[in-house]
Design goal:
This protein has 13 helices and 20 strands. The chain has 493 residues and is α/β, with parallel strands linked by helices. The structure holds nicotinamide-adenine-dinucleotide (NAD).
Length: 493
């Protein structure tokens, strides 16, 4: 007999305990060689005053077992609490979120009979950094951080995944027409790494039309690789149009570690009613078994699940009279899957993971030396003036003899010099200073020139701005990196 492998399991909140009990029942009946060790997470832990939603001692168990099967939790709204999901993903370096979604037509009603795709979502970066500041009375900032190592890892993972699972195409979705540096880097790295996979078709689509196409023509897509926030949104869209958000599972993969869950949340609206669909968590558990090198148990469960679905045994979220045969609750659905263990579906193609369970290997990041040259500074001010010209005049005087004020923007739009009277003004100003001899437009046909400035000149500049009675709230240094401009221009600059 195979020695059971210890895994960490959390029942979570809302429908979590119901769907986890159902999932564990199926795993047990299938003879999956696992030994669950349960931990508390979520509401109970937040209520004990632990703001991360997970007890400090649980990390040791997670490190020991390296596999975490997690039901959804309720994230308390408002200040002080951090999202447990984000904390676990980021703290354990679970950089890749893999969300396969397929249509179960004609047994589960959907407008999209042909839908079989995998969304591979970057899982650690982007706006999920949760670094937010109210900077002025009017303006709040949320930092979007995208790194080269983070992007390289996820893009390579997407291509390696496509290669391993015989997927034909990888589509990258970004908003690099607007975020030319952050999303632009993601797109550029996609092109760089994609070139190493000549047998795989590649395309890039702007996320807004991409989301529309996913909802309208999902058959066009195979593997979709995208940033954290876009991936979160589009995977719910795609799961919902496949039949129900309650169907799709999700794997969060790091180096030698994985967390497996449903893509949906704790569904407080149906909690305790015994009607939730356990399929999303069950599909997450199937991905877990494959990850653990237990493909036979995974296939046995998947095939029994497909049998139940094609025989029309459906929970309320996918029940449709005329299509479904029997409406069941969570426990009954689990029993229907248990009753079919050992059988293969008659209509769907039976699942066989054999040979496809090798964990994907992503090479360690090698940082290249980058030559950075400081060429200016954006000083952000809080000021209630309605007169950008007067502010510009005061800052021009404060600029001193080594630097000059290049422009002022308000929410990114140029308001000085030569602003437009129609532009709406908040109390949040970005004031760009460069070397006094800089020629950022380059003149007719010429290259822009940004002579370097020194770090201590920035500090002296801040002192002069402060002495002029103005209030700097933050600065951003402007760099050229290996000869490339590393900052965006103002709208209208
Ligand atoms: P949700 O996914 O919980 O629910 C959205 C809708 O889908 C609801 O109508 C719900 O009844 C339905 N639904 C979801 N899962 C279902 C299932 N298995 N069977 C049948 N119907 C199902 O999203 P929400 O209401 O926005 O979020 C509720 C809570 O869950 C929030 O606190 C949120 O922060 C949290 N959340 C947690 C996770 C996670 O733990 N991974 C993910 C998303 C949201």
């Amino acid at each position: 007999m195979t020695t059971p492998i210890k895994i960490t399991v959390a029942k979570g909140d809302g429908i979590g305990p119901e769907i986890m009990d159902a999932t564990m029942e199926i795993l047990r009946a299938a003879g999956a060689p696992i030994e669950p060790v349960f931990i508390d997470i979520g509401a109970k832990v937040y209520e004990r005053g632990v703001s991360s939603g997970i007890e400090p001692g649980a990390w040791d168990l997670l490190r020991e077992t390296r596999v975490f099967l997690k039901a959804p939790i309720t994230t308390p709204q408002g200040g002080g609490y951090k999202s447990l999901n984000v904390t676990v993903r980021k703290s354990l370096g679970l950089y890749s979120n893999v969300r396969p979604v397929r249509s179960l037509y004609p047994f589960v009603e959907t407008k999209h009979p042909v839908l079989d795709m995998v969304i591979i979502r970057e899982n650690e970066e982007d706006l999920y950094a949760g670094i937010e500041h109210q900077q002025t009375g009017d303006v709040v900032q949320s930092l979007k951080l995208i790194s080269r190592p983070g992007t390289e890892k996820i893009v390579r993972y997407a291509f390696e995944y496509a290669r391993q699972y015989n997927r034909k195409k990888v589509t990258c979705m970004t908003k690099d027409n607007i975020m030319k540096h952050a999303d632009g880097m993601f797109h550029k790295i996609f092109d760089e790494i994609g070139a190493e996979y000549p047998e795989i078709e590649k395309e890039h689509i702007i996320i807004d039309i991409g989301a529309a196409l996913l909802a309208d023509r999902p058959f066009q897509f195979d593997v979709v690789c995208t940033l954290n926030l876009y991936g979160d949104i589009i995977s719910d869209i795609v799961a919902q149009i496949s039949g129900s958000v309650g169907l799709a599972g999700s794997a969060n993969i790091g180096v030698n570690m994985g967390m497996f869950e449903a893509i949906h949340g704790s569904a407080p609206d149906i909690a305790g009613k015994g009607i939730a669909n356990p399929s999303g968590l069950l599909n997450g558990a199937v991905m877990m078994l494959v990850h653990m090198g237990l493909p036979e148990a995974a296939a046995k469960i998947s095939n029994a699940w497909l049998c139940a679905i094609e025989e029309g045994v459906h929970t309320g979220d996918i029940y449709k009279s005329g299509v479904s045969k029997k409406k069941v609750g969570t426990k009954e659905f689990a029993q229907a899957v248990v009753d079919r263990l050992g059988r293969s579906p008659g209509q769907f193609r039976p699942v066989d993971f054999g040979g496809n369970t090798r964990p994907l290997q992503i090479p360690a990041y090698k940082r290249k030396k980058v030559y950075r040259q400081l060429v200016g500074v954006d000083v952000f001010l809080c000021d209630e003036t309605e007169d950008p010209q007067a502010l510009g005049d005061a800052l021009t005087r404060a600029a001193g003899s080594d630097m000059k004020l290049k422009l002022i923007t308000n929410r990114g739009v140029k308001v000085y010099p030569d602003g437009m009277p129609e532009t709406f003004l908040t109390d949040h100003w970005r004031c760009r200073f460069v070397h006094v001899d800089a020629n950022p437009t380059g003149g007719p046909g010429g290259q822009p020139t940004y002579p370097p400035i020194k770090g201590d000149e920035v500090i002296e500049l801040l002192g002069r701005i402060h002495s002029a009675g103005l209030e700097p709230i933050k600065t951003e240094n402007l760099y050229y990196l290996d000869g490339e401009r590393g900052f965006s221009l103002g709208q209208g600059e």
